[in-house]
Amino acid sequence: NSTETGELLAYAPALIRLTEVVSAEFFPLKSTAVIASSEGEDLSETNRVGQKTIITVLNNTGNTNITFDLELINEYDTKIDVCFNEEDINGLCDMTLSQLVAPGSQAIVRVYAKASLLARADVNQGFNLTASHNGTLLSTSEWNVQVAPDHRIDFIGASQFKVAPGNSIDVELTLINRGNLMETLNVSADFGE
Fold this sequence. Notes:
193 residues, mainly beta, 11 strands
């Protein structure tokens, strides 16, 4: 621009090249989900396990549209089932997913978790959710899955015993733990009048 007349004397486009930044972060990075048993009157072993939809947020903290590769890593697959989809009638479970997220935006990621009959309330179990791009790990969300305790003990044996003074008896009692945690039981005697 001319300082005297203010007219445009020359024009040249300036090329500005931004460095592509690829980064992501899950929220939360660490959390706990509690799976309660199914609601209802049925207390059979097949109904005492429950399921939960776990929701986490994937933030694209970079400056470009990125398709992230998401993966579920489940080291406790005999105790909990985790999938990106609700299992279909063929029992197929998606453990990987591609998710496009715009720069500065967020995507909701749903994980469907289900406790198996082997899940324990007194043992830690969990899974990791990872986000990567072109083979580079960008973020991991660690989930601890707690199973609500199911206290169910079957007692098999006599409920009353008699023993004469100075004598002893051996009591045979069978306990079947149909619950989902280690139980400590105390046996006490009730002396009627």
